[in-house]
Amino acid sequence: MVNVALDDRGRLTLPKEVRERYGNRYHVVQLPDGVKLVPVADDPLEALRDEFADVEKSADELRREARTAAFDEAGR
């Protein structure tokens, strides 16, 4: 964990190690007890393709399975 502070203009500088690991773009998410920085990929679509490269089902199949699971969990 690293402590950082805002400068007089309200900017936050992340340490070099953090920028090298996660990149230079972030979503700022407001939480009840603080904020969270979520890295944003340079090419979000490519990041999604990489994340789901090993999924062999179609989007329709995944959607049907999710709907069925939701209905089952709701006690349909």
UniProtKB/TrEMBL annotation:
Q: Which InterPro entries match?
A: SpoVT-AbrB_sf
Q: Which SUPFAM superfamilies match?
A: AbrB/MazE/MraZ-like
Can you say what this protein is called? AbrB family transcriptional regulator
So which domain of life are we looking at?
Archaea
Q: What is the lineage of its organism?
A: Archaea, Methanobacteriati, Methanobacteriota, Stenosarchaea group, Halobacteria
> Can you name the source organism?
Natrarchaeobaculum sulfurireducens
